[in-house]
Amino acid sequence: FVDSCFFTQESLKVEQEATVDESTFEKTLSALFHDPGILLIGYAGAGDLRKLAASFPHLECFRRVNAVFELSTFASKLPGVAGLGSLNRLSVTALGRPLDKRMQISDWASRPLSRDQLAYAALDAAVLLPIFDVLVELSPQQDYAAVRSSKHCSNWRFTLFSNSETGHETARRLKAKALWLVEPSENAHLDPGNRAAPLLLYLVSQSWPVHSQGPPPPSEVTTEGTFVDKTGELRILARDVLTLAAVEKAIEGSVFSSEDGLSKPGYPSLCLGGFVGASKEKALRLLLSDGVRTASAPPPLLNEGQTLQATADSEGAGAAGEAFARTVRVEFNPRSGLVELADATALFVNIEPVSKRSRYPNNWGDSGRSLSFFLRANQWQGGTSDLARRLTGSSDEVGVLLFARDGNAHKSAPGYQFVFCGRCAVDLTEAAVELSGGLVKVELRLRDAEALQASPLFQALLYIQRQKDSDKPPSDALPGPAEESCAAPPTSAAGHVDRDDAKTGAIPEEAVAVQEELAAMVNQGDVVGAMTRALELAK
Known about the structure:
By secondary structure, the chain is α+β, with helices and mostly antiparallel strands. It has helices at about 20-35, 45-55, 70-75, 85-95, 115-125, 130-140, 145-150, 165-175, 245-250, 280-285, 315-325, 375-380, 385-390, 450, 455-465, 500-505, 510-525, 525-539, and strands at about 40, 65-70, 155-160, 175-180, 200-210, 225-230, 235, 275, 300, 310, 330, 340, 345-350, 365, 370-375, 400-405, 420-425, 435, 440-445.
C-alpha cells in the first residue's frame, strides 16, 4: 500500500502540468479505472472517488471511473446481512472477524502516515474482496456476471468547471460541489471548507448503470442561457425565454372553441382559452414552440453527437423552434406561481370554489375581467420593484401572461390542466392591500377577457366560483350564467371563433344549453364533472 500524497501535488489547477512521477502514477491508475472489464469494489466508494477527483484535478485518471461496484447497497438487499450499517459489522457477519478500527479517528492530515495507519487503510480495502465473494454466494443469482450487470455496478464521471462568471451560474444550476484552493505549503492550517480560502473549481458528479449508455457531460451555462444538466438534458433558463412571437400568434389567432381539439397535430400550439397541459413546464414549452428565439441567440439543439449546436439560418424557423421545444426543458423554480421570462412574467393560479375558504384565494371579479393575486411584499416593494413594473404594464414588455386551472380537480382528472387566459396587468385603480405574513394582494385586469368568453374551458373556470358569487355584474358586463351564454360563439368554416360575431352577442341556442348544463353541475357541487363535460365538448 502506497500513500499517493508522497508524489502527487494536491489542489492544483486543471491545466497544471503533471510531474514525471504523477504521469507514471496516472498511467497505472488509468489502466485500472478506465477498463470496463475490471470490476472495482468499494464500500461507500462514491465519496472517495469525488475526493480523489477534487484533490487531483490535474490528473485525468480520476475524471472517469468504470465498473464501480457498491458493496453497501448490494449487501442491503440480501437476507441475513441487510441493515448492518457498517463495514465492520459486515465483516463480522460475512467473515466471522471484526476489523481493527483503532486508527479510524487518528490524524490523517499529517504526513507521513504511520505504519498503523497504512495497515488500517490497506485492510479496509483488502477485506472487500472476500466479503464480495461471500455476498455473491448469498445472492439469488449466485453468479458473478449477473451481479456485475446489476444496478449496484455503475460508471462514474467527474466534470470540473472553472471559477468564472458562468462557472458560478453553472454550479448553482447543476448543484455542483465547490472546491476551495488550499496551498499545502502556505495555507496548510486552512480547512478546505473554509470560505476564506480562494475558490478554485466546481465539481459535478454523474453516474449510470454499466449496462446503459451514459449521459453526455454537463456543460456550462452559455450566454444564450442554455446548458446540459447532469442527466444530459438540454435546459434553458426561464429568464432567457422570449415570448412575444408565441403570444402574438396566440392572441391574434382564433379563440379555442368547442369544435377544436385539445391540440393540433404534432406538438401543441399556444391558443387563447385552450389547455396548455397539467404542468407549468408544459405551458412554458409552448412559448418556445413557434420558432421563438432566446434573448440573445437562436435556440441551440442537441445533434446526434449530443453536443450543443445553434441553428444558423432563419429558414424553417418554425420547425426548428418546435424541435427546440420538444428537446429543451425550461429551468425555473417549480414551487413558485410566478415565473419571470425575458420579456414577460408568467403567473400560474389555481381556481377554487369560494366555499373552500382558502387563506389566499385567487377570486374572479367583474364577470371574469379581473382576478386577485398574491405576492410577497419584498417582490412588490410598494409598487417600485422591477417586477411591479412588469405586473403593472409600465414597462415596454409583453407584461403578464396568465395560466389558470381548476384547483379543486383531482390530478388525474381531464380538467386538471392550465388554461391560457391571455395577457393581464395589475389594475392601478385598485390599491394593493398589505396582508399579514409579508404578503400583498393585487387585482389583475385581464386584457383579453372579452375574447376569452368564447372559450368553454374559461367559462368552466368562472363557474367554479360563480355559484357563490353574490355580486351582480354591471349592466355593461359580459353575459353571465343566467343571461346570454358566451360558452360557444359562432364559428367559422375552419371551426374557430369568429370574433366579430362574438362581439355582437350572436350566440346560438345550443351554447345557452351547454352553459346551463355546466352551471347546474357546478351548483350541485360537481366541479370536476363540469370540467370533464367541458373537455368532452372541446373534443
